[in-house]
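Session log. Operator J.P. requested a structure for one protein chain; no other inputs attached. Running the standard single-chain path with token output.
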Amino acid sequence: MGNMKNAEKGVRERREVQVTVRPWWWKDMAGTHFLIVKYGHKKLEMQAGKPSIEVGAADKLIPTYHLLAQKQAPDYQRMVFPFNRHR
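Structure written below.
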């Protein structure tokens, strides 16, 4: 959903817009897969200076992402929503 200006009415209204979903992983030349955690365009570092997590095989991407979401949820929430006092 996004706010778009209606040319006929001259007002802004909420409409569905198509967005491009970019990959959240990459593969090096050796075939090892890496997971990247992002918030918007910003890469979140789980450790200082390390914006990606080495996963290994492609079939481990989804389980690693779920494990990260479960294990790091409080820390992840603090990194992503530092301004939100209710979390």
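Operator note: The first helix runs from residue 61 to 71.
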